[in-house]
Design a protein that fits this description.
mainly alpha; globular; 75% helix; 227 residues
Length: 227
């Protein structure tokens, strides 16, 4: 996932990476174990609950004092708002810096115009998000699985092979991005399971295959200068 990979680049050294792997695994294990246990055991406390996504906030309201329930309910709401805000800004920056300015590089000096276009891009994406959330799924986990599966199908091979394959180039990465996005979108949208697999499996296979094929049509990456 790109935003996670960018954070990994900020590690001080290899020792910090190893320490982060241990601490991160421990913290995430505790959080996920507690969350999943609350979801599973919540059925015994709330047998009449109709919407599974409401089990955590409903348990908070019934089990915790009012002030504590308010604090614990405010925390995930703040995290959700922060995440949506960060992704909107990142998407707008990608549209402006990686797409628009590549097509019209002369506009880089027009700061006022760039601000207006960036604000418009953020507004349009926000409207699309509101429309998509108008009829949410029964469980938010299905939306999470769909989005993370798409990110994996699109970005796994460009990230991994871009880092560890010396002959990887931009053509292979672009071909892999397109193949992963199209295959996963089609398979997930039409609920197709090739060879009985979840859409992520054939999507990763197509993405890898397209990376290898497209890589032979692109220019080889320039070697770093000798020290």
């Amino acid at each position: 996932i790109p935003n996670t990979a960018v954070r990994c680049i900020s590690y001080k050294d290899s020792k910090a990476v190893h320490r982060g792997m241990f601490i991160g695994t421990l913290v995430v294990s505790v959080l996920m174990l507690g969350m999943h246990l609350a979801g599973a055991l919540g059925r015994a406390v709330l047998p009449d609950l109709k919407v599974p996504d409401l089990v955590i906030p409903t348990l908070m309201i019934q089990v915790l004092p009012p002030w504590a329930a308010g604090v614990f309910l405010a925390a995930p709401m703040a995290a959700i708002m922060s995440s949506v805000n960060a992704h909107l800004l990142q998407s707008s920056a990608t549209i402006i810096k990686d797409l628009y300015l590549r097509v019209a590089p002369q506009q880089v000096a027009n700061e006022t115009r760039l601000k207006r276009i960036s604000a418009l891009a953020t507004l349009l994406q926000g409207i699309l998000l509101l429309l998509a959330a108008w009829h949410p799924p029964e469980m938010i986990i299905w939306l999470n699985l769909l989005s993370f599966g798409g990110l994996e199908a699109v970005f796994l091979w460009p990230l991994v092979l871009g880092l560890y394959w010396q002959n990887a180039n931009a053509a292979g990465a672009l071909g892999s991005l397109i193949a992963g996005a199209l295959s996963y979108t089609l398979l997930a949208s039409f609920h197709l399971q090739l060879w009985g697999f979840h859409p992520i499996v054939p999507s990763l296979a197509f993405s890898l295959l397209m990376f290898i094929i497209a890589n032979y049509f692109g220019r080889a990456a320039s070697s770093p200068p000798a020290v």
